[in-house]
Design goal:
single chain, 228 residues, alpha+beta, L-fuculose-1-phosphate Aldolase
Length: 228
């Protein structure tokens, strides 16, 4: 079942390790098949060494295991909330990449300080509210997803394909699982750039709105002309 999706999800998880975004088992990637209403995700706590496509777990959008010999990632409920809320999303990635996680632990959004960031997102990368004690105690992982969705109530998730879960770590997404992985890699890089920029100049202001608009729209706008 969904053999090509399993291969893509397995490769995405391995690519996160190769890119240095995942240590130990701190991360996961998933993809959704919208026609079948099924999600393929990494199994919980399984080492990346020797991981194979057949190790991936298939669940429905309510979290019921449809196929797989392992338990799905503990973060599966978070992924599912995002898939249900945002039909344009085809892949979700969660990491504990160093710099993005630092911003998340500081509960600070990543400011857009330059054009590299503007090519990725139309403004700062937001940080969610902190979860309440009740949200942590009951339905913790699903509530992380709900908190992300609330933060994007007035934002377009495709104009900023990543978020910082407060006190926790980053999530990224894309139209495909491959795009989600690329966005996770870019999110870590802009987090690193912003951190180093603020070390050099703690008062560095955000990029001007006109330059932000120019760089974002030339790559992602309706009249985009970046690339072939």
């Amino acid at each position: 079942m969904l053999e090509s999706v399993k291969r893509a999800v397995c490769e995405a998880n391995l690519e996160l390790v190769r890119a240095g975004l995942v240590l130990m088992t701190w991360g996961n990637a998933s993809a959704v098949d919208r026609e079948k209403g099924l999600v393929v995700i990494k199994p919980s706590g399984v080492p990346y060494d020797g991981m194979q496509p057949e190790d991936m777990v298939v669940v429905d959008l309510d979290g019921r295991v449809v196929e797989g010999a392992h338990r799905p990632s503990v973060d599966t409920p978070t992924h599912l909330v995002l898939y249900r809320a945002w039909p344009e999303v085809g892949g979700v990635v969660h990491t504990h990449s160093h710099c993005a996680t630092c911003w998340a632990q500081a509960c600070q959004p990543i400011p857009c300080l330059g054009t590299t960031h503007a090519d990725f997102a139309h403004g700062e990368v937001p940080v969610t509210d902190c979860l309440t004690a009740a949200e942590v105690a009951d339905g913790y992982e699903a509530n992380i997803g709900r908190c992300i969705v609330r933060r994007f109530k007035s934002l377009d998730p495709m104009h900023c394909p990543g978020v910082l879960s407060a006190n926790h770590a980053p999530f990224a997404w894309g139209k495909t699982i491959g795009e989600a992985v690329q966005n996770a890699i870019m999110l870590e890089e802009i987090a690193k750039m912003a951190l180093h920029t603020r070390i050099l100049n703690a008062q560095q202001p955000a990029i001007s709105q006109f330059l932000l608009d120019k760089h974002f729209n030339r790559k992602h706008g309706k009249d985009a002309y970046y690339g072939q």
